[in-house]
TrEMBL record:
Pfam families: GntR (PF00392), UTRA (PF07702)
Entries under SUPFAM superfamilies matching the protein: Chorismate lyase-like, Winged helix' DNA-binding domain
Keyword terms: DNA-binding, Transcription, Transcription regulation
One GO MF term attached to the UniProt entry: DNA binding
The protein, known as: HTH gntR-type domain-containing protein
InterPro entries listed in its UniProt record: Bact_HTH_transcr_reg, Chorismate_lyase_/UTRA_dom_sf, Tscrpt_reg_HTH_GntR, UTRA, WH-like_DNA-bd_sf, WH_DNA-bd_sf
Domain HTH gntR-type: 14-80
Gene Ontology biological-process annotations: negative regulation of DNA-templated transcription
Amino acid sequence: MDLAAGPPETPDQRPMHERITADLREEILSGTTPPGTVLRHADLTQRLGADDTTVHRALRNLQDEHLTAPHADGEMVVGHHRQTMRPAQGMSPVGPSEPFPWLVEVRRRGIDARFTLLEVEVLPEPPARIVEALQLADGQRAVLGHLLLTFDGKPAALIKVYFAYDIVDGTLITGRRLIRGGIPSLLSHLGYPALRCVDLVTAQTPTQEQNTILRLPETVPLLRTFRVAYSTGDRPVIVTDAVEAAHLFELQYEFSPASPR
């Protein structure tokens, strides 16, 4: 890209190993350096003009991000093992005895993906953002479920799921156990099928707690997906607020032209 006509460049103030990590990561994710390519230490030090220690730290960062893996000859080979998330699939209901569709797809790729229900609580005073999203009346309670998603036993995402209390009171959702087939299936059975969803996706720096639980590699941000699902009459029935380790996920949206909202 020719930036000669653009504004003056500001020198990158990041440490050298972080800059090299970022450049190599871009080469991998853009496909310039495809899976199976061996990243040879000596070649990189010469090409990048960096010392051995700096290149080693950069390669270690890429390995921590699951973008590379050790090669038989002691070098590193490009792997790129991010999981593709298809949000539309996650809201598709299935039968009560069937497993959650997205988990099935991930497990077919050889990844042991699992949800763990950490806690369920009733909120007498839900956060203002949730009150607005669920269109709760003054004094109306909400139910909050805390979930942890793991890949091969390693933390990958923290998910908060909110419901209006009157919808889920007395159901399996307040029973403090996972629901086979997923929450969309239960809501559909209760008469609240998810007919459309609105996602707000942002990137953010993790909090200390998030960084500790998700065991994030150095400099890796979080993807945050705030989703509101609407049912019949355009009533909001569920809000999910998920923070995902950005080095483990990519989001895939499929849509066609439609009337603007």
